[in-house]
Amino acid sequence: MPFLLRAAIIGGGAYAIGKRVQGGRDQNAAQNQQIADLQAQQTQQAQMQQAPAPAAAPPASSDETYDQLTKLKSLLDQGVLTQAEFDAQKQKILMGM
To answer: What is the C-alpha to C-alpha distance for residues 17 and 61, in angstroms, rounded to an integer?
Structure first.
């Protein structure tokens, strides 16, 4: 009888150690998967940031710019635009040159 008791104790201990080792492996595998997922996200974000910017609109001709500024000034004089709105739109038009 003592032989069976001893075998049961040894077997139970081995089982518990095996479960602990397997749990550690499972945890490591889950951590490795999370790291791989984060690295993939970072790579994707870096690629998106390095993507070329869309081409800017072609510059407006001098005549078009002059016409746009004239219309804008007219709207300012009529009171449709405030000075701040006029200045902002004027800057956009001039930056398009």
So the answer is: 80
Give residue-wise pLDDT tens across range 3-42.
777 777 787 888 888 888 787 788 888 888 888 888 888 8
Pick from 35, 96, 87: nearest CA to 65: 96
pTM reported for the whole predicted model: 0.39
Q: Which residues of 60-85 are buried (b: 16+ CB within 10 A; e: fewer)?
A: eeeeeeeebeeebeeebeeeebeeee
- Give the helix/strand (H/E) hosting 66: helix 62-78
Do 35 and 59 touch, CB atoms closer than 8 A? no
AA identity, residue 63: D
